[in-house]
Amino acid sequence: MKVIAINGDTVKEALDFAGRGSAIVNLIAEDKGATTLAKWQMIMEIGFLHRAPMLFMNMDKMMGPDFEKGLANLKTALESAPNETPATATYEVKELEWPETTYLGSKTEAVEFANIPTFLGSHFSPELTDLTKNNVKPESAPSGIYFSYDETKGKAEMAAVFKVTKGTKMKGYESYHYPASNVLHVAYYGDYSKTKAAHDVIGQYMKDKKLEYSVVIEEYVTDPGVEKDMSKWLTNIYYVLK
After folding, report:
1. Where are the beta strands (DSSP E) in the chain?
2. Which DSSP helix (H) or strand (E) runs through 117?
3. Domains assigned to the chain
4. pTM of the model
5. Which of 142, 174, 203, 225 fits 124 for a cystine, CB–CB 3.0-4.6 Å?
6. Given this model, what pLDDT does residue 1 score?
7. Could you read off the pLDDT of 74-95 as tens digits, one per residue?
8. Residue 139: predicted pLDDT
């Protein structure tokens, strides 16, 4: 078996059956919040004469034990692997003064962690269109306000928003206003859906400083449609302090 590609949450491998054929195997890691769901997928071309016998073969019985063993080994390896690069060495937490700020956007919804990118993507485009139609100029990149995280249920109470001028209102949209305060800020570069390490750093910082926050705001600065290099995608993460 040979790894031939890694794309996001999928590892693609080439599997050779010693001259009896080959297959493409995908290992898919699906984020479930506090846990990860690992899936195996095998794609193989079967000749016409061999298709009928395949209908009567119990593939789960033939290959299931090997897959179960592989997943068990993967779980053991990941859980026992040392943390060689502490998250605190990667991100710098800054304490900043936060001006009075107003956001306009979707109503607050409980969204599963794995569905957050889809939720944001489905709201930002129509919101921007409506803002333009109403001659409202956004004062920030598209952002997400996170009111709470439920690690047990794997859900976040959140809204998809744009920063606007104080007092701006639009039919069908919620307004979120925050007075001037102090915030913690981390500039994160990378996949927008992989910010957990940066949040962990801020969480440890607050624990050490005995700080508490009211909401979390992620500002998605870089347009993926323009910048294809994911390592250059900037997310400004703000924890609004109480």
Report:
1. 2-7, 10-16, 22-31, 36-43, 94-98, 101-105, 109-112, 143-150, 155-164, 174-178, 181-189, 213-220, 234-241
2. helix 116-133
3. 2-80 (no CATH), 87-241 (3.20.80.10)
4. 0.63
5. 142
6. 58
7. 777 766 655 444 444 478 999 9
8. 93
